[in-house]
Amino acid sequence: MDMHTVVNGEGARHGLGRVVLGDGRASAVTASDVLAVARGGARVELSGEALAALAASRGIVDALAAEPDPVYGVSTGFGALATRYIGPELRGRLQRNIVRSHAAGMGPRVEREVVRALMFLRLKTLCSGHTGVRPEVAQTMADVLNAGITPVVHEYGSLGCSGDLAPLSHCALALMGEGEAEGPDGTLRPAGELLAAHGIRPLELREKEGLALLNGTDGMLGMLVMALADLDVLYRSADVTAALSLEALLGTDKVLAPELHALRPHPGQAASAANMLAVLAGSGMTGHHQDDAPRVQDAYSVRCAPQVAGAGRDTIAHARLVAERELAAAVDNPVVLPADTGPGASGSGGGRVESNGNFHGAPVAYVLDFLAIAVADLGSIAERRTDRLLDKNRSHGLPPFLADDAGVDSGLMIAQYTQAALVSELKRLAVPASADSIPSSAMQEDHVSMGWSAARKLRTSVDNLTRVIAVELYAAARAVELREGLRPAPATRAVVEAARKAGVGGPGPDRHLAPDLAAAEAFVRDGRLLAAVEEVTGPLR
C-alpha cells in the first residue's frame, strides 16, 4: 500500500541527503526531514548539542538509579507490574525483557518507509534529552538507519496508547541484535548478522533504556506525515480531473469565479476553485450547457467540486497543524526533567523523572480518522462524475460508456465498476478507529487510542484514492477526445498528450483495460499528471 512518492531530500537541513538532529530540541525536526529519511534515504547525524543533552539526561537517570527509593521505569516493573521494586542486579535483564516480551506483533510486515519514519521519530525524541538514554543508544539507532537496515515490524500489535509499543519493540529488538531485519539489498536476515556486517555493536540496555525505546506515537505520526505529503499531491490532482470532467460534460466554469467563493471564505474551497479555473483557462468546451439540451445548472458532483475538495483541504490543514505539534513533542513515559522539581516528583539533585500520559495517541488518531473521512468523500464525488461521463442520458452527447461501438463494445463500463468498488471500500475505511477503545494490561491501560489502526487504514485509503482519481482521469481524457470539433483548454491538451505518452490508451475498440488503468494510476501516483498541468498553468495551489 505504499504511495512511493518521490522525495529528493530537499527538506533535510544542513546539506542535501542528511538530517542533523540538533540542539536538544525535538521541535527542530520538520515533516520534510521525516520524508527525507523515510523515503529519500537521507543520513541521520547527531549534533554535539544532541549528544550533550543525551549525556545530561542520562546523568539524572544514573543518579536516581543509585538511590534506594523506587523510580518508575528505572527501578520498577512496568504497566500493571509497576509496584515491584527491581534491584540493580536485575535492571539490565528487566530492560531486555520488556523489549523481548513487547515484540509481539503479528501479521504481514509493514512497509520499509513506515519503519524508517518510526525509527527516525523515536530517535528524534531520544535526542531531546528527556528520555534518559545514553548517547550510544541514540547513535546505534542512527547507525542502523544509515546502514539501510530495516527491522521487521508487523501489521498488528499497537493499540496506540503507551505509544506504538509492539512496532517500536521490534525495532528495539534489532538494536539488541535479535529478531529479523531487512538489509539494504532487500534480503531478510537475522538482525545480529546485519549489525555485524555493518560494524554495529548490539546494545546492552541499562536502566530505563528499553522503556524509552518503546513508548511513543512515532509509528502513527510517521504515517500521518507521509499521508499528508501524498494527499497534497492527490488533492491537486483531483482538482485537475474534476476540471477535465467539467470540460468533457460541457459544463460552465462560471461557478468557479473567485467572487462567488469569497462569499464563503473557506480557504481550501477558494484554492480548489482557483486550480480548476487555471486548468480550464482558454477552453473552447466550457459554457455549452445551453446548446442542444439546455440545463440551468450542472450537477452537484461538478458544480460543488471545490466545496467538497476544499473541505478536505481544510481538514488536511488541521491535520498538518497536529502533526507539527507532535513533531515538536518529546513523548516518553516517564520523562526526564531538569532540576526545578515540583511537588510529588521523583528527583535527585540534578533533575527528576516524572510519569505522564503524553503517550496517548488521541490527538494523532483523531486527525488520521478525519482524513479518512475526507478521502472517502473526495473519492465518492469523483466516482459520481465518472459515472455521469459514461451515462448517455446525463453526459450531454457522449456515447454510452464512451464505447467505440456501443453494444458491440462495452467501453469503460467495468472501469467504473472498479472505481465504485474502490469508493465503497473507502467508505468502510472511513469508519473511525479512534472511536473504539479496548482495555489492556489488567485494566491499567483501560483507554487506548487505536491510532496505529487509524494510520494503517488511512494508508489504504490514500492508495485507493489514487486509483479512483486515475479512473476519472482515464474517463475524462477519453471523453474530451470524443468531443470532436471543440477545442479543450491548453492544460487539458497537455494532460491528454502526457497521458498518452505514459501508456494511457485513448478511444477505440474494446481492449484489455487493466494495463491502461495501471498506467493511469502510475501517471497520477508519481506526479506526472500534476507536472503536465503545471507546465501550462504554473504551480497549482
Automatic annotation (TrEMBL):
The modification 2,3-didehydroalanine (Ser) is found at S162. GO terms for molecular function: histidine ammonia-lyase activity. It comes from the Bacteria. Keywords: Cytoplasm, Histidine metabolism, Lyase. It is found in: Cytoplasm. The keyword Transport does not apply. Pfam families: Lyase_aromatic. It catalyses: L-histidine = trans-urocanate + NH4(+). Contains an active site 4-methylidene-imidazol-5-one (MIO), which is formed autocatalytically by cyclization and dehydration of residues Cys-Ser-Gly. There is a cross-link at C161-G163 (5-imidazolinone (Ala-Gly)). InterPro entries: Aromatic_Lyase, Fumarase/histidase_N, HutH, L-Aspartase-like, Phe/His_NH3-lyase_AS. Pathway: Amino-acid degradation; L-histidine degradation into L-glutamate; N-formimidoyl-L-glutamate from L-histidine: step 1/3. Its EC number is 4.3.1.3. Its main location: cytoplasm. HAMAP family: His_ammonia_lyase. Belongs to the PAL/histidase family. NCBIfam families: hutH (TIGR01225), PRK09367.1 (NF006871). This is Histidine ammonia-lyase. It comes from Streptomyces cathayae. The gene is hutH.
